[in-house]
């Protein structure tokens, strides 16, 4: 029986774990070369970066399983050089039709940003009870630009349409049949809220840079629940500081597996301003979504589905 190592920073749903134990010797391990060297398969969540240093002694390793669509938390180049396959949802998004957590989180971030909910909550907890100070804005009637019209982009477009927003879409690979398809420039110039749902590729890193942010309407909002590397954080911060953008909500940041110092400019700004909301890549972290994704990936590993 092959050994499947689960990093001790990762949790797996009980049903998925039970299925895996029927096919593998499942072992809880640390991210050390010695532990990983004992594994035929490694189960790694998004919690930690699995780098070359801990993989160099993994001579038995056949595959890394990760319940995600992106691989920025894995040293994909080194894995490819060793012939170690990655089992994930990349190219298998048809299996995630009923996984909606990130789309719901996107909607939650939009509402939190427009209604200034974190700041209002903090004010009440601090003993204040003010209404006028937290006059917000509505989704109804807004033009929302969806960048990337895959599974999540489609879900978000449907959600905000139900709330009375007008949706425009930019995706160079997919035509949105029910919505207006526009260029990225047109989307940035005309949208009140821009929400990113594009997959990260080498040719779209920092696709929202200084020039793109300068095209956005004064007071517009940016939401990113896709990948942090899609946005130039320095340009975003500069626009927020100068009053260009009205606000931003980020569930992902650049190089999120590198611990940021307390005086990191993005964190420092978020501490002292209520128009930047940061969450720790929790878009997909719901009980329901993790139950579904863990089970789907376990079935793939056990040869029961794809």
Search tags:
2 domains; Rossmann fold; 7-stranded parallel beta sheet; about 300 residues; 12 strands; 5-stranded parallel beta sheet; alpha/beta
Can you tell me the CATH architecture of the largest domain?
3-Layer(aba) Sandwich
How many domains comprise the coordinates? 2
Task: Give the uncertain stretches in residue-range form.
Answer: none
Shape category: globular
Task: Describe this structure as you would to a colleague.
Helix 7 links the parallel strand 6 and strand 7 (166-170). Helix 1 runs parallel beside helix 12 (287-301) and helix 5 packs across helix 7. This protein has helices spanning 14-21, 33-37, 52-55, 76-82, 101-115, 117-125, 151-162, 184-190, 210-215, 233-242, 265-272, 287-301, and strands spanning 3-7, 25-29, 41-43, 63-65, 85-87, 143-147, 166-170, 180-181, 193-196, 221-224, 247-250, 276-278. The strands form 2 sheets. A 7-stranded parallel β-sheet has the order 8-7-6-9-10-11-12, sandwiched between helices. The chain has 2 domains: 3-95 and 287-301, Rossmann fold (3-Layer(aba) Sandwich), CATH 3.40.50; 101-278, Rossmann fold (3-Layer(aba) Sandwich), CATH 3.40.50.720. Helices cover 35% and strands 15% of the residues. The chain is globular, with a radius of gyration of 21 Å. The longest helix is centred in the middle third of the chain and has 15 residues, at 101-115. The protein is an alpha/beta fold and 306 residues long.
